[in-house]
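If your schedule permits, I should be very grateful for your opinion on a structural question. I have a record of one protein: its chain in single-letter code and its fold written as discrete structure tokens. Kindly check, if you would, that the fold set down in the tokens agrees with what the sequence suggests. I remain grateful for any guidance, and I place the record below:

***
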Amino acid sequence: MKIAFIGLGIMGKPMVRNLLKHGNEVWVYDLNQANIDAVTKDGAHAGTSNADIIEKCPVVITMVPNGPQVEQVVLAKGGMLDHAKAGQVLIDMSSIAPTVSQKVCAACAEKGVKMLDAPVSGGEPKAIDGTLSIMVGGDKALFDEYQPLLLQMGASAVWCGPIGAGNTTKLANQIIVAVNIAACAEAYTMVKKAGVDPNLVFAAIKGGLAGSTVMNAKVPMMIDDNFKPGFRIDLHIKDLNNAIETGHKVGAPLPLTVEVQEMLENLHFDGCGSDDHSALAKYYAKISGTKISNK
């Protein structure tokens, strides 16, 4: 399949590589030339602009930071809809507010362009090994047609409902992940202050009800004092802002989300915005005077 891929950040690059491994012809563009160079070495074709690659390909995948960037790529002057042909398909895999997905889809429909919103979960490690969880909103028949393509980048691709449902699902995911990480940081800080080895506690409880994919992935990072980003704090702040905005619009109370958001914002202003979100452990170290790690 001939695919235009826009957005080659920490997630986009490995996603492109997995599409290439499955024999697709992938045309790429990013504002950062180094990102383009990184994937053209693996067989991708470099475009000179978004418009350049959009005009070449029947399928366009966007993986950009947030809603304003999606709107810029698709709706702005010189964007996708100025160059699109009826029948083209846009698969937006960015994590954005559901209302933006709905706005972009409505504009696409006027031009005869079909759209899915298909945000992902799993961070860089799962983007690299092609085992992302992909949450999809849009027309069910369109989803059925493109699910095999999505599964070239993920271990699962699940239809969640009409356009915007994919991003609503992603926001729910991000709330659960954020609160879970914060709970782990809080619990393991207590463990350390009580003089118990966090490694032994992790071994004891990971197979029980408290065990989770989040704990298994993030607590070892806290214990090792390793906050190399798989998913950056600044990106989680963005997602929780979208969740809080959505909650306000639909009347859903999100007090835990707001509390964790304040923790993440505090870390951002301490210069930790590029750390992995497991660095919530740093917030608890700051207010407790105790690090989970011995390092």
Q: What stands out?
A: The longest strand covers residues 154-161. The first helix runs from residue 12 to 21.
